[in-house]
Amino acid sequence: MAHDHHDHHNDHEHGDHHAPHDHGDIDWAEMAPHLEAQAELYTPLYRQAMAWLAREVTDPGLVVDVGSGPGVVSCLFAETFPGARVVAADGAAPLLERARARAERLGFGDRFGTLAGDLPAALADLDYPADLMWASQSLHHLPDQRAALAALGGHLAPGGTLAILEGGLPARFLPRDIGFGRPGLQARIRAVEEDAFAEMRADLPDSVAETEDWPAMLTTAGLKHTGTRSFLLDLPAPVSEAARDYVTTSLSRLRERIGERLDADDLATLDRLLDPADEAGVHRRQDLFVLVAHTVYTAVRPV
User: Phi-psi bin for 183: left (phi > 0), alpha (psi -120 to 50), beta?
Assistant: First the structure.
């Protein structure tokens, strides 16, 4: 899977991480640092999710990160499961080069592989079935999510686990009343994002409308739903420079993507927030925070 993300949502808060792989206009070399920085910032959330998964999945032989991007999370899997071989799979080969370099740098190179190509079809090139497969905010970019789940499940070993990260709660960065403009800016931006996301899904070739009941979809795909849990990223004010950069980049990308859909007052407020010279902008204000929840659903392939 490629990425806008999300943002890997926050190309739409649904994933800066993973945008459609057919976006040929995306410069992955340019995007990679943003994707890496976001995943690094979200590492506390991913570590919580992995600790939860590790209680269900013991000593997996092969872990596959489907829609891995530049491999930050793939390397966290290598760290969490020191006996596992990890494969990072993505539609964007330049991001996989970053993933491989990261694994080498962290000392996981001897048990780390990459797989480039359209997903989930490229998974046919796996040498053997996966004991754990992770798909973070990549499924919602595929036209037929139910068929994609079935395809992923087909690459699991009997008794293997599929973990998908989808949904949760959108990131919040600012108080409801920021001292100028109409209060509730982020909620209104979110409503516009939801409409844009629905249009993205509808515009996918052969898109299949689906009630987003992930346990039901997993069951229909022939898997046994085993758990659902949400994980919180809570970075209160005052934030680190890395968190401030993430907020600034996320809002800048939102401005580019949906700015013209906002009303004039909200657009003016957003532009003031993005002005590096403005004391009340996100580059300087002291009340910035990052608060987001991601939900993980697990399912097992029947033995």
Answer: beta
* Confidence check: pLDDT of 17 > 80: no
Residue 113 three-state SS: strand
Task: State the average pLDDT over residues 158-185.
Answer: 96
The answer to whether residue 13 scores a pLDDT higher than 80 is: no
Question: Domain residue spans in the chain?
Answer: 28-301
Contacts of 169 (CB under 8 A, 6+ apart): 230, 292, 293
Is residue 218 within 8 A of residue 163, CB to CB? The reply is no
pLDDT band at 25 (very low <50, low <70, confident <90, very high): low
Topology of domain 28-301, CATH: Rossmann fold (3.40.50)
Output the CA–CA distances (angstroms, integers) from residue 249 to 55, 66, 273, in the order listed: 35, 25, 12
For the entire predicted model, the pTM comes to 0.90
- pLDDT of residue 10 exceeding 60, the answer is no
Write out 127-160 in H/E/C secondary structure.
Answer: CCCEEEEEEECCHHHCCCHHHHHHHHHCCEEEEE
Cβ atoms of 17 and 253 closer than 8 Å:
no
Q: Give the C-alpha separation, 101 to 81, whole Å.
A: 19
Token pair belonging to 251:
């809002």
Q: What are the percentages of helix, strand and coil residues in the chain, rounded to 5?
A: 40, 20, 35
How buried is 212 (Cβ within 10 angstroms: 0-12 exposed, 13-18 middle, 19+ buried)? exposed
State yes or no: pLDDT of 6 exceeds 90.
no
β-bridge mates for residue 160, sequence order: none
